[in-house]
C-alpha cells in the first residue's frame, strides 16, 4: 500500500502528558473509542512504565480495542519494554514503541553515553521488543538534530534487530520544512534496508511548523504520521491530526495519498477532547475553531452567496460541523434520540439510552431545539462520568450590587448518599457557591482555572463551565453544563472535587498493585 498514510494518534500519550490535559481512566477509554470511530490506524495509549495509572489505562484500552493497533511507549530499557508488553499484549494488534536519543546533544548530556553504546542499547532494546511481537516501532529521539551517518547506521541496525516502523521525531520543533524533508529523504535513501520498514515522523510545534514538517516528510517517502487531536502535546504541542488529514483530503491532487480518517468525525473528536480536558478550542483554530467556516466581511459573504467555492476550500459538513437533518426537541421519541446519537458516533446500550433520553427531555423543556453540541455535552455528562461520591441536588443564588448585602448561595447535595445542605456568602455568587460546597465537604482546594463557554448560540445556550482544582499535589478538572451558568458552575466544582477524590484513591490503589509486579 505505497500510497496509504498510517495515522498514529498520540493524544493519549504525548498529548496527555502536556500541562492541563490529564485524563482519568474513563475519559481515556471514551477517547480511545472515538479515535477508533475516527478511523486512525494506531493509538498510542500511554507510557506504561511511567506510572501505575498509565500502565492500567494502557491495559484497559488494549482490552477494549477492536482491530485498531494499540501502542505503548517504552524507553530502550528492559523494565519499560516488559511492562509495555504486559500492558498492550491483550490488544488484537499490539505494538511496542521504543525510543532512544540519537543527537550528539542528547547522547552526551541526557544519556551520558557515546554513540557506540547508544547503538548497542538500541539494538538490545529492539531485540527485546521483537521477542514479544513483530510490530515494533523504534524512534530516534531528537532526530532532526542528529548526524546523518550515525542516523543511517542506527536505523539500519534497528531494522535488522526487528523494528518494522522507524519514527523520525522533530522532538524540539526545530526543523524547517525543506531542511526536514531533505534529512528524512537522505536517511530513507541511505539506509540499506529501508524497504523493510515504514518510515514515520513526529513533529512538535515549537515554531508553529509541526504540520508543515509532517506534510513535507510525506513528500519524500514517509508513510506514518504521528499526530494529536487539536495539536495538544509537550510544550507547544504536536502536529494536529485534523489539519494533516484535511490537507491530504483537500489537496489529494497534490499529495496523491490515501488514508482511512473519516473526516466527518473530526469535529466530534476534537470537541470531545476539548470537553474532556476542559480546554476550549481557539476560535481561529484551523478546521475545528468556531470561526473556521465563518464569513464576516461583506465581500466574502457576497462571494459565498454567488458560489461557495469563492471562499470555501472544504465544506463544514466534510469535517462533521453541520447539524444533521435529525432535529431533536421536546417531542422527539426514544427511537429518534437513539438514531441521532448513533449518527453522531455514540453506541449506547439500553440503560444508557434511558438515562440520556430522560436528560434530553429535561433539557428540551428549557431549550426548544437541541443542537449536536448540546447533545454531545449531555452524553458526556450523563454517561462517561464515573459514579460520584458527591452529587449536586439544588442550588439557589442571590446576587446583589447593594452595599452591605453580600452575594449568597444555598446548596443541597448528597455526600456518600446522605443529603446535606449549606449556605454562605462570597465576594460574588460563584465565590459564594464554591465556599459553601467546600465547607460542606471540609475541603480547601485551590481554584486553578475557571472558564465559561457558551456551547451553542442564542441566549438559551447551554453554558459549559470548566473548573480546575488543586489539592495535596493532585489537580483535577471538572465540567458542568446547564442553561443557568451558576448551576453549571456548581456542577463543575462538584465534578472537580469528585475527580480529585478519585485521583487520590486511584493513586493509592494502583500503587499497591504496581509494587507487587
Ligand atoms: O517528541 C518525541 O521525540 C517523542 C518520542 C518519544 C517519540 O515524543
Ligand atoms: Zn513528542
Task: Name a few traits of the molecule.
517 residues; alpha/beta; TIM Barrel; Double Stranded RNA Binding Domain; 3 domains; eight-stranded parallel barrel; three-stranded antiparallel beta sheet; 18 helices; 43% helix; globular; disordered C terminus; binds 3-methyl-2-oxobutanoic acid; binds zinc ion
> What structural class do you assign from the helix and strand content?
alpha/beta
Number of helical stretches of at least 4 residues:
18
Shape, principal axes of CA atoms: globular
Mean of all residue-level pLDDT scores: 90
Number of strands: 16
The percent of residues in helical segments reads 40-55%
CATH superfamily of the largest domain: Aldolase class I
How many separate domains make up the residues? Answer: 3
User: What proportion strand?
Assistant: 15-25%
Which CATH architecture of the largest domain would you pick?
Alpha-Beta Barrel
Low-pLDDT sequence parts: 513-517
What does this entry look like structurally?
This protein has three domains: 6-277, Aldolase class I (TIM Barrel); 334-382; 390-511, Double Stranded RNA Binding Domain. Helix content is 43%, strand content 20%. It contains 18 helices and 16 strands. It has helices spanning 11-15, 25-38, 52-64, 78-88, 104-111, 115-132, 148-161, 177-190, 210-218, 241-250, 252-255, 266-277, 298-306, 334-343, 350-366, 372-382, 429-441, 485-515; strands at residues 6-9, 42-46, 69-75, 93-101, 136-141, 165-170, 198-203, 224-227, 328-329, 369-370, 390-398, 408-415, 418-425, 446-454, 463-471, 474-482. An eight-stranded parallel barrel has the order 1-2-3-4-5-6-7-8, surrounded by eight helices. It has a three-stranded antiparallel sheet with strand order 11-12-13. Helix 4 packs parallel to helix 6 (115-132). It is globular and about 75 Å long. Residues 513-517 have low confidence and may be disordered. Bound molecules: 3-methyl-2-oxobutanoic acid and zinc ion.
